[in-house]
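thread: overnight batch results

M.L. [08:02]
morning all. the overnight job finished for the chain we discussed friday. pasting input first so we're all looking at the same thing
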Amino acid sequence: MRAAVLHEIGQDKLEVLDDVEAVGFGPGKVRIRVRATGLCHSDLSAMSGVLPQPAPFVPGHEGAGEIIEAGEGVSHLKAGDRVVVCWLPACGACPACKRGQTELCLAGFMNAGTPNFKRPGGDVFGFAGTGTFSEEVVVDAGCAVPIPDDVPFDIAALIGCGVTTGLGAALNTADLEAGSSVAVIGCGGVGISVIQGARLRGAAEIVAVDPIAARRESALAFGATRAVSPDELPDTTQQITAGEGFDHVFEVVGKAATARTAYDTTRRGGTLVVVGAGAMDDFLQLNMFELFFDEKRILPSLYGGGDVLRSYERTIALWRAGRVDLAGLITHRVPLADVNEALDQMRTGTALRTCVEM
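M.L. [08:03]
and the structure it wrote out:
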């Protein structure tokens, strides 16, 4: 089968090969025919080494498709079922799951160290234990979440990561209140989803901050009340909040520098929500006095900070009701053979989300 492979960490191009085989099928597993997958910035971060991932590997973790076959012991899925790939499944038995914090379950991360592809030259890993830049993938049955027939594969793929992450950061982690003021730093697909979540909760001011003009224009279309470049943020903060700072600021870039800006832009007693996935050697510096004196809450948000399956269901319900725009997030489409074009679109910021169609 065909799959896009990164041979070494640090390379900026994928090689689309036709000699890749999905492996590991057996009890408790399912084989999925991938129909659509989104390109998430986390894929680029894994390719560059910002996020830890063994190589060679197949990127992609935001996918949807059909079950080809289900292994022994899998009773809730059968061939032909439509599913979204969940890269962070809950085991249901660990301490985090028992506390109701299923997004902190480590079962999915354990899968990342086991190869789920192979080539004549050796083993190949799948990013985040999945690897959806492939025609087929074998995953634990818990990673395959059934979706209704009326949800298109491209929409389902977005729900698999970016939309769930962004909406959840606003609805679960921040628990935004109506009338609040919000700033979102970084307005790609995830940031736009944060904006939609803030709009749903009735935020009075939603300021989108991004250096790319096209993304700022998109942010306004999705519900931002104002869109500014990073250089304009201080003046905008003064105009809207009289310099006090915003009630909620979302950092959706994954860098210490923007997190520090987000902290400084948050009002005393306000909330900074860290959504971007950054590097382990990129340190955010705060002094002990400001932590004590400003009483700003710093809330990291992993995968939307809530129960993933319930978040999927909520997103589908909101999409059906026309309360969130998911189709509009897909600004570009490419076949798997042109996946490097999708990478360039993400790097340059010309795409909110590129859908890779199989």
